[in-house]
Specification:
mainly alpha, globular, three-stranded antiparallel sheet, 17 helices
């Protein structure tokens, strides 16, 4: 078989263009915002070479996945569900902690977040359920129940260590059910139930958690001191499940506290993330300071990850920030076009679910950077510096490309009658 550029970069060309634009921006901005990493470990090229290597591995896997007929993705569903459930349980029992969050496990020396795999697994499973339960008059009555049976246990396991990811994938599942024709009455009831549950959880977090300003996020004694009348074993169990309550409460209170604070009174030691992110954006103007000229990158925690969008705006200006935002919007729009051309339901639901997963996460990240949402810890997909999360996002893009290549297309007569 003759190997050529055309044989490698197959599939929807617009998706490929969006992917390459995101990768180019990622390489430039990660290189610029990794100054603290190069300072701590005197290796000027180390962080960007590692990030470039991860993107290359992701590109290779993306090409592999795009060449797999999308109908074969169904085979992996049950295995991915089992693996996701076991790895998420592993995280809760003995996961590795970074920045106060116990979200990582290590297999054969490879560290990864099981929640990243679980997100795609849930989308794959829900797409399969929605496609299997379609009828001429919409979805079957039991579709809603089956979706919840499959998705809720995995979302519940994600919740304790990564509330924002659990909220994100819940929103994606709701959007997929709406797109798949599930009863609006049932979706409305689910949204109402989730809203009520969210209020209860918020109340518990505000009640249990402590807002200590600058505190050691790894300090696990705060919650135990509040559990009165419990045995030490019971206190440790509650502490294990809700040790993130202090962090969640602090973020909520900081976001809801909208009183005006003068620059002289603003404490950058307490609110470094929000403060330096605002400084970066406010000093950007229209065209920005230019790539590599950020001043906030040396002071902004996680400038190369959670808050890289603030660095993008600082260096590329509001125009650059808007351009990045529209790249994700175009990704969702183009995925919708691909889904609309699919003759079968499964690839259409899959491509929309994966696109929603990437785009909604990007919107969460950007809203945090500009102060429209509390800090969530969600990286910017395909741009933020990452490890296995970047690779997995590349695999998601590969699956979208696979659908654009191998999914059976609607006939011209069918499309014509639909337009008529």
């Amino acid at each position: 078989m003759k190997i050529s550029i055309g044989n490698i970069f197959k599939g929807d060309k617009v998706i490929w263009m969006i992917f390459f634009f995101l990768c180019i921006i990622s390489l430039i901005e990660v290189f610029s915002s990794s100054s603290t990493l190069t300072y701590n470990k005197p290796n000027y090229w180390g962080p960007i070479l590692k990030h470039g290597g991860i993107l290359f591995v992701g590109l290779v896997l993306m090409v592999v996945v795009q060449n797999i007929d999308c109908k074969y993705f169904k085979i992996a569903t049950i295995f991915l569900i089992i693996f996701s459930a076991l790895s998420l349980l592993w995280v809760l029992a003995a996961g590795q902690t970074t920045n106060g969050a116990q979200r990582w496990v290590s297999i054969l020396g490879i560290q990864f977040q099981p929640s990243e795999i679980a997100k795609g697994t849930i989308v794959l499973a829900v797409a399969q359920i929605l496609s299997a339960m379609q009828t001429e008059n919409g979805t079957e009555e039991k579709t809603f129940k089956y979706v919840l049976i499959v998705s809720c246990p995995l979302i519940f396991l994600i919740f304790f260590e990564n509330f924002s990811t659990a909220a994100l994938i819940s929103l994606v599942v709701i959007c997929m059910m709406f797109y798949g024709g599930v009863s609006l009455k049932k979706i409305g009831r689910l949204v109402g139930f989730l809203a009520l549950t969210g209020l209860i959880i918020l109340s518990l977090v505000l009640l249990i958690g402590k807002d200590n300003g600058v505190k050691n996020v790894n300090d696990k004694n705060n919650l135990t001191e509040q559990v009165e009348g419990k045995t030490k074993k019971e206190a440790n169990a509650i502490e294990k499940l809700f040790h993130r309550a202090d962090t969640w409460k602090g973020r909520i209170l900081k976001f809801t506290d909208r009183k005006d604070v003068s620059p002289e009174e603003f404490d950058l030691n307490v609110d470094a993330q929000v403060g330096y992110s605002n400084i970066a954006i406010a000093s950007s103007e229209i065209v920005g300071k230019g790539p590599g000229n950020s001043e906030a990158r040396d002071l902004l925690p996680q400038a190369f990850s959670d808050f890289i969008y603030a660095i993008i705006i600082e260096e590329l200006g509001l125009a650059g920030g808007i351009f990045v935002m529209f790249l994700y919007i175009f990704l969702l729009w183009r995925s919708g076009r691909i889904a609309d051309r699919c003759a079968n339901n499964f690839p259409a639901f899959l491509v929309m679910g994966l696109a929603l997963l990437l785009v909604l996460q990007a919107m969460f990240n950007m809203m945090v950077a500009v102060g429209l949402a509390p800090v969530t810890g969600q990286p910017l997909p395909l741009i933020s510096k990452g490890g296995t999360s970047t690779i997995i996002n590349c695999i998601y893009i590969g699956a979208i490309l696979s659908v654009s290549i191998s999914a059976k297309r609607k006939s011209s007569t069918t499309m014509g009658s639909k337009l008529a």
